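Project channel, design review

CF: Before we commit to the Quiscalus mexicanus constructs, I'd like one complete example in the thread so the newer folks can see what an input/output pair looks like. Taking AT10B ATPase.
RD: sounds good, go ahead.
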Amino acid sequence: RIVLPDNGRQWKDWKQASTVYSRNRIQTTKYTWFTFLPRNLLRQFHRLGNLYFFFMVVLNWFPQVEVFHREITMLPLVMVLLFSMIKDALEDYRKYQYDKTINFTKTRVYDK
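CF: and here is what came back for AT10B ATPase:
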């Protein structure tokens, strides 16, 4: 048990120490406005299926190997990436809203 006298010095020490430590804020979001596109694309291309379709798109850009039209080969990959990006953006926005409500919730401080 630690007993401290209430002479005002602790308040001054606490104010100095509170600038050093991080804030008590919850953040569960994965992305920011600037990092959404690169981080999401990196996460999408970690999936084997997306890499396969990307490989097919790259192969179809060479005339010797072209089987389908270039646009038709790109369509499945673009659609999957687009829908996944929309889903991830909506999930992250919901997390942001929830974090905001939690962080601005009033709390009660009990002093003796």
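RD: helpful, thanks. The CA atoms of residues 47 and 94 lie 24 Å apart.
CF: The helical segments are 9-18, 36-44, 48-60, 70-103.
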